Amino acid sequence: MATYLVMKNNFKRSYNNRLLFILILILPAITILLAGVVNKISNPSERIGILINAHKEEYSHLISILEKTEDVKWEFADEHTLKTDLIMGKYNIVLDYRDTKTINGFKALSYENEKVTTGITKAEQMISFLLTLLMITSTLNSSVIIKDKKVGTLSRFCYAPTTIFSYVGGNIVYNIILAYCQIIFALLLLKLFHIQVGISDGYFLIISFIIVLIATAFGIFISYISRSEMKANIIAACITVLFSLLGGSFVSIEKMPFLFQKISAVSPTRWIIEMTKNIEQGKGVLEPSMPLLVLMSSTLLLLIFSIVIINYNKEAIK
Amino acid sequence: MNLFYRLFVFDIKRRAKSGFTIGYNVIFPVVMIFLLGYLLSSNFSNGISSYSYYTLVMIPFCCTMAVITAAYAGKDESYAKTAYRLLVAPVKEQHIFLAKLLSCLIIFSVCNIIVLIAAKLLWHITMGKNIIGVIVLLIAETFCTCAGGLFIGLGMKNFVIVKNFLNIPILVCAVMGGSFYPMGTLNKSVQLIFNLSPLTWINKSIFLSIYDHNDATLWITTFSLCIVGGLFTLAGIKSFNKEEFLNGDLPSYEK
User: Fold this and answer.
1) C-alpha distances in angstroms, B44 versus A88, A117, B8, B112?
2) What total of structural domains would you count in chain B?
3) How far is B1 from chain A (nearest CA, A)?
4) Measuring CA to CA, how many Å separate B244 from each of A153, B81, B111?
5) Could you read off the pLDDT of B181-211 as tens digits, one per residue?
6) Gap between the Cα atoms of A204 and A210, Å rounded
7) Interface confidence: ipTM more than 0.85
8) B176 contacts in A (CB within 8 Å)?
């Protein structure tokens, strides 16, 4: 009953500030939608820049060939911004036609930019992005705990004839419901705009639930150890970016140096990506596997640590 | 002037002593540059190393993230329960705002320059001939983010709502601006979306200056940031009342 009351009270407090509540619900969805739209529009493309010296009309034959080529996007490159365009990934390849007008006479790939190959699929990217986002928003949602600590609600709870587990439980349930609503809202938006996640909706919802669990445990843990909302926000942002980096969101684990492969084991992003990989390979998401075991045990560990910390605080309060 | 000077010295001491702020603005970017630079070293070639790339994009990103610290810096007096002292003191609102702005600007700019020097020493990154221009751009960006942060912290009524969501738009802007990996495209619609991110322009102008020796964009971006920062400063001073500090006692303003 106390768990239910804590959860209900948290919802009431959130709903009192309706604008904030609506923002909490829609912001992750909009961010995911934006990522999906960018992903959808920007594919497929081998991006070529053509450097020329004279009038564009003289290159009509070359243009007609490029127009007919599939999966190639091209434009005339500007030599004054060439290096910047290559560095910022605008072109994969630049063909230099400044000294020739014949099709075969260009300087072979006079400037070449290696295409960034992260080695991870769209689904893996989307899922890891979702985890990163939810870890941040769950910390924001859990910041009610910091307020409770400051205004003395937690002290009152410690003196009440109930266990501290009900307080933690209420916060967990509140966070899980809110985070899962965010995911459902995001999925509906993606469906509305016909953006594919890369895995079936059923699997997406199951894997999202695992993400919600780990994000909730993380958010609650950060809120228990932080003395202020600012610190909680900043710590959460830093840790999630580092987790994302080490977990293989930017470059796949296989491409990482040996030491980093080992260090990446601490990142939940790595395991959620591996779980998504398993799904893509046709394995079941809930089959006993290393990623599932690691994610569930780390969720449990974070919650145990949170309870230990709050118990310690409880003693200090009393 | 004397009152402003006292406030400024007090604020700058407070900023300089904040280990969290310094760690966040110096250690975090250095760690990020090292990790991203090392992990993605094989994806960069032709004139730029991964360390150079990530130094030049990570400093503006962390500089933007400082908007959160600046927003909370605006609430210092509220949380430190020293609001009444400032209310009865003969200091003007603009003194308080400008003292905070200047202290944040100096400390964060120094942090950025330290990161730049550390990257130069550790990874021998290319600075180009117009390094002064790049530093001026970073200072202008710091001015803009500090003014924006203080406007949120001191001048906005719904600080509680805004502070919670600053992280997410900044991260989205960082991704669009290429702070984590190069996000080039030839699709006009996508490019239009990317161009909405200020970090796209800041990063682009730095690369243009260093690698293409083209400083025009750099100065235009610097000027634009100064204008936006100036507008935030004016809006912040105009909308700030000292009595707002008393709201620190409200539960939703908890630090």
Assistant:
1) 11, 11, 44, 24
2) 1
3) 32
4) 25, 12, 30
5) 787 777 787 888 888 899 999 999 999 999 8
6) 10
7) no
8) 38
Q: Tell whether A310 is within 8 A of chain B (Cβ).
A: no
**Which residue in B38, B168, B211 is closest to A87 by CB distance?**
B211
> Which two tokens mark A284?
């079941």
For A239-277, how does the pLDDT look when each residue is reduced to its tens digit (9 = 90+)? 888 888 888 887 778 877 788 888 888 899 999 998 888
User: How far is the C-alpha of A31 from the C-alpha of A15, rounded, in Å?
Assistant: 22
Q: Tell me the pTM.
A: 0.80
Its sign, for the CA torsion B65, B68, B74, B80, is: negative
By CA distance, what is B163's nearest residue in A? A230
3-state helix, strand, coil in chain A (%, to 5): 70, 5, 25
Q: Residue B243: which domain range?
A: 2-253
Write down the residue that tokens 């912001």 correspond to: A27
B93 pLDDT above the threshold of 50? yes
Interface of A with B in 163-222 (CB under 8 A): none
Bridging pattern class, strands A107-112 and A72-76: unpaired
B50 contacts: CB under 8 Å, gap ≥ 6? B36, B37, B38, B40, B41, B43, B44
Which residue in chain B has the smallest CA separation from A228? B255
Delimit the domains of chain A by residue range.
2-39+120-317, 44-112
